[in-house]
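Re: the request from the purification team.
They wanted to know what the chain is likely to look like in 3D before they choose a buffer screen. I agreed to run a prediction and write the result into the notebook, where they can find it.
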Amino acid sequence: MPINIPEQLPARHILEKENIFLMEDERAVTQDIRPLNILILNLMPEKEKTERQLLRLLSNSPLQVNVEFLHTSTYESKNISKSHLSQFYKTFHEIKDKRYDGMIITGAPIEQLDFEDVAYWEELKEIMDWTKTNVTSVLHICWGAQAALYHHYGINKHPLHEKLSGVFQHRMMHPTVKLVRGMDDVFLAPHSRYTGVSEEEIENHDQLTLLSSSKNAGPLMVISNDEKHVMITGHIEYESTTLAEEYERDVAKGLNVEIPTGYFPEDDPDQPPLNRWRSQAYLLFSNWLNYYVYQETPYEWGSESLWSI
């Protein structure tokens, strides 16, 4: 089934060329099933790339999905035009009286800052508290996962000796949990960050379950026992070339960074990387939408409308 996104969103043209099933508003309103309404708080600097990555993964399910984008009002992104934000994004003040079936909170390249030093931390805390009553399930990615672990469960991040960048092997620890149903016992996933979280703290927390971890990259998937929060510390949504683009950017800045681990064929940056995590990413997002959003969300959220159509 399709995703319903604004007709002028730049990601639409790229996704249509990939034969992703997209739907116009006129056709969407004729569907008999109620669509899922997903809110995406996009904290990444290159917002259009992140939009494309997430929309692609959300499209691969039998469910009709309406997507709405959110940006912070207490910090203005420098890498996206104001016209793009005003046309396709809303602020928390504009949507706080609505309820959503699911929400995604993305990562942000600010993990070396203490949470309290982040310009929009107070706003993000307000949004995360709001999700407890207004969102059925929240998927947190990378720094967004670290923020959720810290805010909701008191687990802080810690600095790494060097940037963790590459594609790492992970082991599945609880293969019967619905989120990872059908995923391989051992699988690959990308990471790109300067901080990590403690596997021991997660395993010892009585409200959390560690679903998968890596000997070299640490915890990857964590779920709260009430199934309200899913935390993905890596970037399983990344496209094939995203780590290469980040590596080239860091080198151009003069940063002392290593070649992403296990990413380029023969560790040669001149060779195009192969995507070896795509199927796991599609399955993870499909499982989240089905088991934690669609199967759990009420058909009607009281008397309030979720979506204005």
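For the purification team: Residues 3-294 form a domain with the Rossmann fold fold (CATH 3.40.50.880).
Please add any questions underneath this entry.
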